[in-house]
Amino acid sequence: xxxxxxxxxxxxxxxxxxxxxxxxxxxxxxxxxxxxxxxxxxxxxxxxxxxxxxxxxxxxxxxxxxxxxxxxxxxxxxxxxxxxxxxxxxxxxxxxxxxxxxxxxxxxxxx
Length: 111
Hints:
Layout (H helix, E strand, L loop, with lengths): L8 E6 L6 E9 L2 E10 L2 H14 L4 H5 L3 H7 L8 H21 L6
Antiparallel strand pairs: 1-2, 2-3
Helix pairs in contact: 1-4, 3-4
């Protein structure tokens, strides 16, 4: 939990319907996520999904991280009730957004 200082990638996502919010920061070295941290505001399932995402991301390559799904998050948590599946979607969306941020920052010619 927390925030990485000077991260290589950042995402900020919010559920307009449920009000959950998630900030995800990543440290990436040699194409591998070496550190992932989160700050979340929401229900217990949103916080648990965000936390599990950081656990599952750490040590993964960027390609492996892109394949992290809400189903994998839910399984890793031992399942989520149908009414809380949106919480795993928030974490999945944050991962995708963070990886897009990393790619934008590291395109040839970007400053």
